[in-house]
């Protein structure tokens, strides 16, 4: 068989010249006649290539199969010895045809491989071009993104809103007829307006700094004058002591007994003096006023403030002279500003080292200790309290940590009452209400007592102090009486309580069980509608109670949530009643009587001030139980 190298260039050119669209299979006899006329081998090769391309692989394979069958038939006849004898001419022609078509199939495959190779090279070339174009597109996209993300200095400036710009800017700066249609000119105009505003603010700052320096020098002069008056005041006090002894007056000597009194901040000094005066005028021996804290830290704080005041006075000229000098870089100013901000945030909620304490003795030797501290950075006074009672039963079941909640209407002590302090908290993004448990509560009545409230008080400090003392005692006594009454009810002594209060019992209803439950137990046992009512309250209840009443038709369980200002505030209740022999549970969601009772306790019910509040509440619930239990005809 000839090797593939016989397909020369001439043969390929001849193939290209003679190649035509295949319309029909060329007659084999005609092609054989053309081969007889060929003398040049290259022409012969071209004719073979033409025959191979026009016949096709399938036709040639079929003809090889036919020739092979002829050879098989001849061999089988020869082996079996059949007649006629071996036909050599036919066998030779079949062998030649097998060889010829095998060569043609080989040449056809070689041409297809070459054609496929050319196509592959073309595809690879185009694929490489596509890869190059893709990388170029990616590179251009990165360049575009980098250009779009390039930070400009003017982008870091916080400009005023567009409406405010057109409202405040002068017409020669805003140029609305141009800037409203041209975004670039609009940005330039806003930057010019920002520059003018900052120049104006800088001038205002310089003016205020000058006024501050004048006021600081005036304050220093007055302080020196007050210090010079102190020896004279001491001599007047000494001379007045003999007069007090002669008149039989009790000298206000608590400041002498408390060495830390002179270190108290002015706001707490006012409270201390008013509390001592109230104690002596009313002759209330159950009130104790004292001063506590770290006197060493207070002295160091006082020295630091004096040094800072002197340094501020000395540095005023340097600061004013440095306005037109060399400016710090933006990074240095940013680092200094952030450091000062963090330092300010750290000491914002730091109280004064010296505090004032007022201890009030209430019913059954229950002691309410109120600790008042002053926060200099916020300009407010905060209150912490602690209640101790060793002789009160069931004392721990009530939340005494909420005793001061709503002591006066609208005073929850969760917000900073000082406008400047509130602005500082907002700037530093400090959530004051979440920190009130640790630093104390800035109630409005505390600000009145210490004189640190913004608006003027409608009453004198002595009247306000008396009002607070009375309210604290009433709140503590109410809770103590409630704790005692609950213990009596748990022991089954409800009727003696009713007789003592002059309240008629409810026939057909008996109180069988009284429990103090947790917040989680209350929420788990009440319906969803009652939970929604509970969420509307800002402050949490101070106690959750569970009452169980027995009626002729079954047991009624009532859950109650009481707030700190009980009985002034409403009562949130939930009822459940399951009749004997029936599986259906009645509640405020499916029973009109329970729903009306819940609404009445929450919105309308008021207790008689002359009677025990918790006892009146139990009787009111028993009346509801009697109506639902079918004993309304026996009620008074």
Descriptors for this entry?
single chain; 636 residues; alpha+beta; 4 domains; five-stranded antiparallel sheet; four-stranded antiparallel sheet; 22 helices; elongated
Structure overview:
One of its GO terms (cellular component) is THO complex part of transcription export complex. Residues 308-330 have a biased composition (Acidic residues). The chain is α+β, with helices and mostly antiparallel strands and 636 residues long. The protein has four domains: 4-129, no CATH class; 153-251; 253-316 and 343-475, no CATH class; 492-634, no CATH class. Helix content is 59%, strand content 11%. It has helices at residues 9-18, 28-37, 41-55, 57-80, 88-148, 162-168, 171-174, 176-179, 183-247, 254-257, 266-282, 295-321, 330-347, 419-428, 432-439, 444-450, 461-490, 494-501, 519-525, 528-535, 592-603, 613-629, and strands at 287-293, 354-361, 367-375, 380-388, 510-517, 543-551, 554-562, 572-579, 585-587. The strands form two sheets. It has a five-stranded antiparallel sheet. α9 packs across α12. The longest helix is centred in the middle third of the chain and has 65 residues, at 183-247. It is elongated, with a radius of gyration of 52 Å. The termini are far apart. The model is unreliable at 1-5, 7-26, 312-333, 454-458 and 631-636 (pLDDT under 50).
